[in-house]
Specification:
The chain has helices at residues 9-35, 45-53, 57-60, 86-95, 100-103, 121-133, 139-146, 150-162, 179-182, 214-226, 236-241, 246-262. Among the domains are: 78-162, Cytochrome Bc1 Complex, Chain D, domain 2 (Orthogonal Bundle), CATH 1.10.760; 179-262, Cytochrome Bc1 Complex, Chain D, domain 2, CATH 1.10.760.10. The protein is built from twelve helices and no strands. The N and C termini lie far apart (73 Å). The protein has 266 residues and is mostly helical. Mean pLDDT is 82; it is low at 59-64 and 261-266. It holds the Pfam family Cytochrom_C. This is Cytochrome C. Keywords: Electron transport, Heme, Iron, Metal-binding, Transport. One of its GO terms (molecular function) is metal ion binding.
Length: 266
């Protein structure tokens, strides 16, 4: 059996090359890649190793109260999407009087709050439960949601789903759409907006965003990008937005906000 000697130039350079490759892999896997994720703050070598290995952050998160907010606990069911009876709509309309200052008398906001007229009922139900549990942050909305029981939340969702949809036709596939809306960016693992938010397909629990105030859309995209907002199941929105630039965020928000304000149909 042949024995290799470090005096052999070929063997020596093979060992050196292997050492350099190993060091480079460690640098990329444990330092460079974790550092580019906006929702990750290195707290030592162990956290870096866990992140690189794909271990859930909660397994290695500190127990001193500084852990990031928890994600949604709402389980979406098809029953949430059913058309509610008229009595539920009536009760929801009464409860929604507390919402008119921000969301408008008919669910169309005159401020930068989201429009709720015609919103899918399961979307309102999910977000209200997230506010109620503190999974989504808002001083006003958390206080309002905690005062409601499950039946009342369903009634409010039924009322807003019943309201006339003051919006244009849904976005359809067209070459004039912004690239991220139409086809996304597969190389950055960004799915097209229309694959979930209506137009081509609507994923249960995904809000209708046609005609939303631009400032609201920009604020939410930035919150997902930074990790400040974390109530998206399995980090779906955070994973999409993390790779987007500020220009792309503005472009997508401008497109969807313009739809209802100008009546433009793409």
């Amino acid at each position: 059996m042949a024995l290799y000697s470090f005096r052999d130039p070929g063997f020596r350079w093979s060992v050196i090359a292997l050492a350099i490759l190993t060091a480079g892999s460690v640098l990329v896997g444990f330092v460079l890649l974790p550092s580019v994720h906006g929702d990750f703050s290195a707290r030592g070598l162990w956290d870096a190793i866990c992140r690189a290995a794909g271990v859930p952050a909660s397994w290695s998160a500190p127990k001193d109260g500084t852990a990031a907010p928890r994600e949604t606990l709402v389980v979406l069911e098809r029953s949430m999407t059913k058309v509610a009876p008229s009595d539920a709509v009536g009760r929801g309309g009464t409860l929604a009087l507390n919402c008119t200052m921000c969301h408008g008398a008919q669910g169309m906001s005159a401020s930068n709050a989201p429009n709720l007229a015609g919103q899918y009922p399961e979307v309102v139900i999910k977000q209200m439960h997230d506010y109620k549990s503190g999974r989504r942050s808002s001083t006003i909305m958390e206080a309002l949601a905690r005062a409601l029981n499950d039946d009342q939340i369903r009634d409010i969702a039924a009322y807003y789903a019943y309201l006339p949809k003051a919006r244009t036709a849904p976005t359809t596939y067209d070459e004039n759409l912004p690239a991220l809306v139409r086809v996304g960016d597969p190389l950055r693992n960004i799915a097209p907006c229309i694959s979930c938010h209506g137009g081509v397909d609507q994923k249960i629990g995904t809000p209708w965003i046609e005609g939303m105030p631009k400032a609201y859309l920009v604020a939410q995209l930035r919150a997902f990008k930074s990790g400040e907002r974390r109530n998206d199941a399995q980090a779906q929105m955070r994973n999409m937005v993390r790779g987007m630039t500020e220009q792309e965020i503005d472009e997508v928000a401008t497109f969807y906000a313009r739809k209802a304000s100008t009546g433009e149909n793409h």
